[in-house]
Design brief:
The chain is 34% helix and 27% strand. By secondary structure, the chain is α+β, with helices and mostly antiparallel strands.
């Protein structure tokens, strides 16, 4: 298991489309992947769960990946969330 703090740098935060793309990235991997903000912890492969977080640009989150491909999963999720597009 690995945990990493990440700052969201996507221009408009995690609205519907960026959340859907994040879920697609996370769903490529066998590892369990969770996003934590404060007291909330949700499955990164769940569109509804991710939408409940209402994440904004500049917000700090913690991503946790656990499984056989956790390193690759974490790298891709960090790359996606750190893209200032």
């Amino acid at each position: 298991m690995i945990k990493k703090p990440i700052t969201i740098q996507i221009a408009n935060g995690l609205e519907a489309r960026p959340v859907a793309l994040l879920v697609q990235v996370a769903s490529q991997y066998m590892s369990e992947i969770h996003v934590e903000v404060g007291e909330k912890r949700v499955n990164a492969k769940s569109i509804m769960g991710m939408m409940t977080l209402g994440l904004e640009t500049g917000e700090n989150i913690e991503v946790e990946a656990s499984g056989v491909d956790e390193e690759e999963a974490m790298a891709d999720i960090e790359k996606y969330l750190s893209a200032a597009c």
